[in-house]
Write a structure and sequence with these properties.
Blueprint: E1 5-6, E2 18-20, E3 25-30, E4 33-39, E5 44-51, E6 57-62, E7 71-76, E8 81-85, E9 90-95, E10 102-107, E11 114-119, E12 124-128, E13 134-137, E14 144-149, E15 156-161, E16 166-170, E17 176-181, E18 188-193, E19 224-229, E20 233-238, E21 243-249, E22 272-273, E23 281-285, E24 291-295, E25 304-306, E26 320-327, E27 333-339, E28 343-348, E29 353-359, E30 365-370, E31 377-382, E32 387-391, E33 401-404, E34 412-417, E35 424-429, E36 434-438, E37 446-447, E38 456-462, E39 480-485, E40 490-493, E41 503-504, H1 505-513, E42 522-527, E43 533-538, E44 543-547, E45 552-557, E46 564-569, E47 582-587, E48 592-596, H2 598-602, E49 609-611, E50 616-618, E51 625-630, E52 637-642, E53 647-651, E54 656-661, E55 668-673, E56 680-685, E57 690-694, H3 706-726, E58 739-740, E59 743-744, H4 749-759, H5 779-783, H6 797-801, H7 810-815, H8 820-835, H9 859-876, H10 879-889, H11 892-902, H12 907-912, H13 918-934, H14 938-947, H15 951-960, H16 964-974, H17 980-996, H18 999-1008, H19 1012-1020, H20 1025-1038, H21 1041-1057, ...
Helix pairs in contact: 9-10, 10-11, 11-13, 13-14, 14-15, 15-16, 16-17, 17-18, 18-19, 19-20, 20-21, 21-22, 21-23, 22-23, 23-24, 23-26, 25-26, 26-27, 27-28, 27-29, 29-35, 31-32, 31-33, 35-36, 35-37
Length: 1464
């Protein structure tokens, strides 16, 4: 493990991103890593990292329970919560319950298994460590900033929100909100519970204006809660009372030498910490990095005390984010603070003094170098725009560092100490700036007036070369500063005159060596320690060695083939002379080469020598080499750092690997050997850390290979993937290397350094004149993690992956891909053509094998080349390329003609077509329209037709392709309103829409076309209530009266069927001519409400009128109808006009009433019945007794024939409460007199059914208990149904009445039920029905026998059916003639004769008997005789008449069986 290290900076703007456990282990979230730091009162040491999060760590908390204090939890913006073992530095478990970035996490101080987290959407999640379960709550729809679990109750959690709200929730009650604490008006940065579980008095004097209210001791069980907010106040809350008890305003502490910044509120982060065992003392952060200790028992200025006042420089210089404290075993209580100034400080809570400071780094470590003069003085260049100078040899303070930021304003990418002058440090930055710091003074740096255009890669001090070496000995500098940057230029700066212009050494190199060609861009340089020669690395992989001061080229090393990243000469002290001229070099390929240049340097050649073989080759790294340094303590020992994430120590002479260091996460960028300890090396890299390690203590000797290499790369890329995806700025940012299989996507490493710089998410801070350090990045930049990434020269990977566009000149291009010898010969041929009057024999530029030379010769040659290229494009089908070539040649018309023929016209060609004249343009447009139609781009085609004023053609084009909407828009925009084509378009579109089911849209088209009738009809096709209502209104507005009436009536009937009576009346009320239908709906509503009131039917009513509430039971329904008509509709016997009763009845008679069937729903049956009831009341108003009784009979018969017998019986009771059909009304006394036979028959039938019901009522009221149900005729199932119906529908309750209620006599004339003519008619009808059934069975059996369908299985089923009919027939015969038995089955002929006999009997009967039937006479006989058994209420004559009718007409077996007890 490493000895000392500077970790990455803790993340900013999180309420709890660091925590201490009881043993003094500090966990700090930095980027996506948690650093573990062992702390005590005297020292601190980074002991490891917890690696695994894919995004910024947003929260960290230790478990504070004994035996489990090594377990910790962290949260991240990737939405995950991870549990860690800090002893073994391994992941235990991961939870992914959140869908949004998590903003806070806390391990409960009470429950060792409970962890609570909250995210930016307001979701709170409880995690149970022992079971792995989670539970989610959503107390408030706000952004959570912080949360803290109570140290006294496991279920209490305080949550602070962005808008200033604080909520106390109970996690044991599904996150129920206990209190909402309102008082802050800005972000809640921190919450802290009092360490004491009571609300003892915090004394405050009345004159203390800072306290919002006096605090008194309360008996309620509770605990104080402290909150810190961006509104510059700390508030103390009573959790028992749910209100604030004290407000502390931050003191404005004016720093020496600086004024209070007016924008200080924007830069405030107010963290509060309540130390254990100190119930009246509270620690909070303050403006600009101060810490304040509050004494809650005191007032005024005595209330607060500043930390670190015993000496200067103890406090942080920027705002503080996190505080945590610990009691150590030596009884000292320490407080740890993290700040925006990138320092972690430890404070003694007893003395309030700073114990130690740990610097941290907020960017890539790009450069590090030890001073050659000041022993152990290490300079570090970091991507957070600062330089750190660390005195590594100080014993009192292990981390004695100073930070330099003035004048930098960009990432520090290069450093170099002056070789002689102590404290003089040169630096280079990402934005091309070069400057020199005097680290022993507080002066700002000297900045060179000559800027590089790109990132500074390397700085080196060396002897001056012309023109700076000219002049007197005292005037010229002893050393010049050389800088190499990304644009490939090396500048020589005069350190004494940085304001002067720097010189480009390329001019001297060209002049000295007489070089005319372009020099390769330079990427690195290194002066030999004795200053005699300089090595310069280039982008093409070549290394040039020049002799000073004239920079004569001695040799060129052409060993590498990729960009040179680093060069180092062997040191010249205390080593054999043969080693002094060793030059090590590293490039973007992974091999390190060492060259021995002793012979060349000692005996300079006349002309430059090219070296292609190395002295030593060091192989082992698997990534590009980024830095190297020779050991100052050994001979020929070298350390290199690489993109493979390791540092490697080599024995160069043996080409042997000595030691490999793998302590970093990600690639390394810089390295230096300790000048005082031969075993110590320092490295820095992408992981924001600077690490010190010992060569002798490393486990590995070689870089990782195979699977280990793959694992290491995955580990390196894990941090980068999320950032590439989200591009979020970290609190102490970082980004992925732009790598593809270990190599950069650009030409070399130095360009990659620029990419690393641009990819790094460090904070781009701006210095302030009144602030000792740069002001912070804005809150939004850090909190929302949305810093923009500077792109610089970073190539777009997506662009690199795009397919290369097709060449316009493929033939000539392909000629440039021939073998090298042919290409060289082309140069000779072209030179001959250009410089001699007679070209070589057979050489015609632009033709044949010299086709490509047409591009470099004259215009005729170019045209020849174009012709050949056109032929090639035509063969390949690339007609668009042919068109462009013709355009370039000036043949515009030919180009358009070819494009037209080949269907390759486009907007660009069309735009230049007018240059060829109107005729050509017009033809081209028409051709393009046809092409667009083939491509189904009809709108575009129509638009182009408009450009040549062909409006009607454009409309036809749109209409033919069913683009009616666009065609109509075009017509209305360009043509008069009465244009016939418009109506035609509307009609066609409406037909299409109607066919597709878009009725409302079709209606709009019909309306626009003036076809209102069609519009109403098409809307009504949907046939639902809303559509019918709309269609009726539309027809009424449009003047289509008949259609409006029809649609309104349909809608009203649907509404009535749905029991929406109010809606039905509203629809009909819009038209006076529908009054009679309103009366019908009114009757239907009254009938429905009365039936519902009697509980005979159960129907849910949507809406009803007040007048429809049931009246007194003694009033008949027709009386109530008559009253409502008169009051609500003005219809009475005397009304006239359209309310005339005669006219209304005539209109209502035209409404058809269908034949009743059993399949009609009850609601529909009620509508039909109420129609007859309406006619009856109108007839009553006209004094037409005959029509009245017939309509009443129809109203009752509709319900009876549809199978609703109990409803029919109830309607009879509502019509005739007294049971007498001759009494029509009590309110309007009137006795009905019927003169015509049909009316009499209807009245008798109606009276018979009333008596029939009363007969059953009498039977049931006099029967205490019915043991056996009365057997009824099998041939008349309806009667049996009626009995069942009545027993079910509420009549049987009278059967349990006491016997004392029996009636000894019938209260009606039962003889009406025993009419022989009706008995004969009913018997004949039963016989006809029976014979029809037999005939149908015989025909079916015969057809099966004829068709061969009757198999043995069917015989077993069908034959018994036939025999049963036969038996029944024989039984009937046996009853007539007991002494005779007929064994022969009846034939078709005999059955037909019987059928004709019975039909003749029916025909002889009067029509009134068949039209107005009575209840089943046989059934009534049986009931009467049964009643006689239990009660002597029937006369003897009536009993005898019943028996006679049974003997005569009770022929069916079931009736015979039931009547035996009465007839024997």
């Amino acid at each position: 493990m490493h000895e000392r290290s500077l970790p990455a900076s803790p993340n900013w703007y999180f309420s709890r991103c660091s925590d201490l456990n009881s043993s003094g282990l500090l966990g700090v979230g930095a980027k996506n890593i948690i650093y573990l730091i062992d702390v005590s009162a005297s020292f601190c040491r980074v002991i490891g990292e917890l690696v695994g999060h894919k995004d910024l760590v947003s929260g960290f908390s230790f478990c504070q329970h004994a035996g489990q204090s090594h377990i910790c939890v962290s949260s991240s913006n990737d939405g995950s919560v991870r549990f860690w073992d800090s002893d073994n530095k391994v992941l235990i478990r991961e939870h992914a319950a959140h869908q949004s970035p998590i903003s806070a996490v806390h391990w409960s101080p009470v429950d060792k298994n409970l962890v609570v987290s909250g995210d930016e959407k307001g979701i709170v999640v409880c995690h149970w460590y022992n079971t792995g379960d989670t539970a989610s709550f959503f107390p408030e729809p706000r952004t959570i900033f912080c949360l803290t679990c109570s140290p006294h109750s496991w279920s209490s959690v305080a949550v602070g929100y962005k808008d200033g709200m604080i909520v106390l929730i109970d996690v044991s009650k599904k996150g129920e909100v206990m209190h909402r604490l309102r008082g802050h008006d800005d972000e809640i940065h921190s919450l802290a519970w009092s360490p004491v579980a009571s609300e003892e008095a915090l004394y405050s004097r009345p004159e203390d204006t800072e306290a919002t209210s006096g605090v008194s001791a309360g008996d309620e069980k509770g605990c104080y809660l402290a909150s810190g907010s961006k509104d510059q106040t700390v508030r103390i809350w009573s959790t028992a009372k749910g209100k604030g008890v004290m407000t502390l305003k931050l003191p404005f502490v004016k720093k020496r030498g600086s004024a209070v910044d007016p924008g200080v509120k924007e830069r405030l982060w107010l963290h509060v910490h309540w130390p254990k065992g100190r119930p009246t003392e509270l620690v909070s952060s303050c403006f600009c990095g101060e810490l304040v200790m509050w004494d809650l028992t005191r007032t005024g200025k005595h209330r607060w005390t500043l930390f670190g006042t015993s000496s200067e420089g103890q406090n942080h210089s920027r705002i503080i984010f996190n505080l945590s404290s610990v009691h150590l075993q030596d009884n000292r209580e320490l407080l740890i603070s993290t700040s925006m100034d990138r320092e972690i400080k430890c404070w003694d809570l007893a003395s309030l003094d700073c114990c130690w400071t740990l610097p941290t780094l907020g960017g890539f470590v790009y450069a590090l170098t030890f001073s050659p003069v000041g022993a152990g003085c290490l300079a570090v260049g970091v991507g957070d725009n600062m330089i750190r100078v660390w005195n590594t040899l100080t014993t009192q303070n292990q981390y004695d560092t100073r930070s330099f930021w003035q004048g930098i304003k960009s990432k520090v990418t290069a450093l170099a100490w002056h070789p002689k002058k102590e404290g003089s440090l040169s630096f280079g930055t990402d934005d091309g700036k070069v400057g020199i710091y005097d680290v022993f003074s507080n002066k700002p740096p000297q900045i060179s007036s000559s800027y590089h255009r790109k990132t500074v890669y390397t700085l080196a001090w060396g002897p001056p070369v012309p023109p700076m070496s000219f002049g007197a000995a005292g005037a010229k500098p002893s050393f010049s500063l050389y800088s190499c940057a990304g644009e490939g230029v090396i500048l020589q700066h005069d350190p004494s005159k940085l304001s002067g212009e720097a010189s480009d050494i390329d001019k001297l190199i060209r002049d000295t060596n007489d070089i005319k060609h372009k020099l390769s861009p330079h990427t690195d340089l290194c002066w030999k320690p004795d200053g005699k020669v300089v090595a310069i690395g280039n982008e093409d992989g070549c290394i040039d060695v020049y002799q000073a001061p004239s920079l004569k080229l001695l040799c060129s090393i052409q060993q590498h083939h990729k960009i040179i990243n680093t060069l180092r000469w062997h040191h010249g002290h205390s080593s054999p002379p043969e080693l002094h001229c060793l030059l090590a070099s590293g490039s973007s390929n992974a091999t390190v080469y060492v060259h021995d240049l002793r012979s060349i340097i000692e005996n300079p050649p006349e002309s430059a020598v090219v070296l292609t073989e190395p002295y030593r080759r060091l192989c082992g790294h698997t990534g590009k080499i980024t830095g190297m340094v020779w050991s100052p303590h050994h001979d020929a020992r070298l350390v290199t750092v690489s993109y493979d994430g390791t540092a490697q120590v080599w024995d160069v002479l043996q080409e042997a690997a000595v030691s490999n260091y793998r302590g970093h996460i990600g690639y390394l960028l810089c390295v230096d050997w300790s000048p005082v300890d031969p075993d110590v090396i320092w490295t820095g890299g992408k992981d924001f850390t600077l690490q010190e390690w010992r060569v002798s203590q490393q486990e590995f000797t070689k870089p990782p290979k195979g699977k280990k290499m793959v694992d290491l790369k995955e580990k390196m890329k894990a941090n980068a993937k999320q950032k590439k995806k989200n591009k979020k700025a970290l609190g102490a940012g970082g980004a992925a290397p732009l790598e593809m299989n270990g190599e950069t996507v650009t030409g070399g490493e130095k360009a990659a350094v620029g990419q690393e710089l641009s990819g790094e998410d460090g904070e781009d801070e701006v210095s302030s004149t009144n602030s000792p350090v740069p002001p912070p990045a804005t809150f939004e930049m850090q909190r929302k993690l949305s810093t923009a990434v500077k792109s610089k020269d970073k190539p777009d990977l997506n662009l690199l992956k795009k397919k290369k566009p097709r060449s316009m000149l493929p033939l000539s291009t392909s000629m440039d891909h021939r073998p090298k010898e042919d290409l060289l010969q082309d140069c000779i041929t072209l030179a001959s053509v250009k410089h001699s009057n007679a070209p070589p024999a057979g050489c015609v530029p632009g033709q044949g094998e010299h086709l490509h030379l047409g591009l470099f010769s004259d215009r005729p040659a170019l045209h020849r080349m174009f012709e050949a290229e056109e032929e090639g494009h035509v063969e390949a089908g690339h007609y668009d390329s042919v068109v462009y070539l013709r355009l370039w040649s000036g043949d515009l018309e030919g180009a358009l003609q070819l494009a037209t023929e080949k269907g390759e016209l486009n907007d660009h060609l069309l735009s230049i077509a007018p240059m060829a004249g109107f005729e050509v343009w017009s033809r081209t447009v028409e051709a393009f329209v046809k092409q667009l139609c083939l491509q189904e781009q009809y709108l575009k085609a129509a638009s182009h037709l408009l450009s040549i004023n062909k409006l009607y053609e454009a409309i036809d084009l749109l209409r033919s392709h069913k683009l009616y909407r666009e065609a109509i828009a075009l017509v209305k925009a360009r043509l008069p309103a009465d244009e016939p084509v418009l109506k035609e378009l509307y009609t066609c579109w409406a037909a299409v829409l109607e066919k597709d089911g878009h009725f409302s849209a079709a209606a709009k088209c019909y309306l626009a076309a003036g076809a209102s009738f069609d519009a109403a009809k098409v809307i009504a096709r949907k046939n639902d209530i809303s559509s019918l209502r709309t269609a009726a209104s539309l027809a009424r507005i449009s003047g289509e009266v008949a259609l409006a009436q029809s649609l309104a009536l349909r809608c009203a009937k649907d509404l009535a069927a749905a029991q929406d009576w109010v809606g039905a009346q509203e629809v009909l009320s819009s038209q006076e001519s529908l009054l009679v239908h309103r009366l019908h709906i009114c009757v239907a509503e009254l009938l429905s409400m009365m039936l519902t009131d009697t509980q005979v039917v159960s129907q849910s009513c949507v809406s009803s009128h007040p007048w429809a509430s049931p009246a007194e039971r003694i009033i008949s329904i027709q009386d109530q109808v008559r009253d409502v008509w008169e009051q609500q509709f003005g219809v009475s016997q005397t009304s006239g006009g359209h309310r005339s009763v005669g006219a209304l009845l005539l209109e209502l008679k035209s409404v058809e009433s269908p034949t009743p069937t059993a399949n009609v729903p009850l609601r529909q049956v009620q509508l039909y019945s109420s129609l007859h009831l309406t006619r009856a009341v109108l007839s009553w108003l006209l004094d037409d007794d005959g029509q009245l009784i017939k309509e009443l009979w129809q109203a009752v018969a509709w319900l009876r024939d549809a199978g609703h017998l109990s409803v029919s019986a109830e309607l009879c009771r509502l019509l005739f409460p007294d049971g007498d059909v001759s009494v029509c009304s009590r309110k309007h006394p009137r006795t009905l007199n019927h003169s015509e036979e049909e009316a009499k028959a209807a009245a008798n039938s109606l009276q018979a059914f009333v008596y029939y019901q009363r007969l059953y009522d009498h039977w049931w009221s006099n029967s205490i208990q019915i043991q056996n149900r009365l057997p009824l005729s099998a041939a008349d199932s309806s009667t049996g149904d009626e009995v069942k119906d009545k027993a079910v529908n509420g009549k049987s309750e009278e059967s349990v009445c006491p016997a004392t209620r029996r009636l000894d006599k019938l209260d009606f004339d039962a003889s009406l039920l025993l009419r022989e003519d009706h008995a004969a008619c009913q018997a004949a009808q039963r016989s006809v029905k029976e014979i029809q059934e037999r005939l149908a069975a015989m025909v079916l059996q015969h057809s099966r026998v004829q068709g061969g369908q009757l198999d043995s299985g069917e015989k077993e089923v069908d034959v018994p059916a036939q025999t049963s009919v036969t038996r029944e027939s024989s039984d009937s015969q046996r009853s007539d003639d007991p002494g005779q038995r007929s064994e022969d089955p009846e034939t078709l002929l005999s059955l037909s004769s019987k059928m004709s006999e019975h039909q003749k009997q029916l025909a002889d009967l009067p029509d009134t008997i068949k039209a107005y039937p009575h209840p089943d006479v046989v059934e009534c006989c049986l009931v009467l005789l049964h009643v006689t058994k239990s009660s002597p209420c029937v006369s003897e004559s009536l009993q005898q008449e019943a028996k006679d009718l049974l003997r005569k007409y009770g022929a069916s077996p079931s009736v015979l069986k039931a009547s035996q007890r009465f007839l024997t």
